[in-house]
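ubiquitinyl hydrolase 1
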Amino acid sequence: TLFSALRSLYIHISQNAADKGTVAPRAFIDKLKELNEAFRNTMHQDAHEFLNYLLNRIVEEIEEEKKNLHANGNGGDNGSTFIHQIFEGILTSETRCLTCEKVSARDESFLDLSIDIEANSSVTACLRQFSASEMLCQRNKFFCDGCCDYQEAEKRMKIKRLPNVLALHLKRFKYQEEVQKYIKLAYRVAFPFELRLFNTVDDAENPDRMYELFAIVVHIGSGPNHGHYVSIIKTMGIWLIFDDETVDTIKENDIHRYFGESNAGSAYVLYYQAV
């Protein structure tokens, strides 16, 4: 399975911690290509799509394993997987009818949050926009159970349960009708090292939870189908930049170069850990 290939890779790294140099994740890549044809060609692939595929695939494989254990009478645990325990949060879509004021709420789980970005903005401002009220009117009227009719309504997204690790995907690739292709939005979007999510529901558990930035996936290049990814990760208090086989330290004061609008590259996925 993909999970066992990834597990073997991490075991190899941890058991050979004193070794210098790099580890080529060939067995993992081979398994990935076998399971998903999108990764079989030499084209540049999307890091966020890979994250989504990896997390969901691991969940599927663990749940399949549990099901088999259960079928064989070994009483597999039916609880959530470690992926859910780390990454899962719950979003609530709140819709308020403007006629009778009735509020309807619908929950959906997430493993990462994708947010729209704007030029010269910040992650905090983009998150505020993510939870801004949206009017449902004219053709988009909402069917209100209280009124038993389509009514104008106000809709907004709030976070009901905060994840332990928040993966924030900045939507830098946008389809442009005029050129009929995806273009990159190399906007400058400032991101904080500490983040508090204010767009939570009133009864959210631990709504003042503080998050600390610990990893960044950076896209370098002008478009989604070509370019290069590097990762910046904080380990034992030191920031490291991983660029293929090269690993260098980077000063915290230099990380702002990856806000965007420079040749250095643009932050694409941000990882925040609850503290």
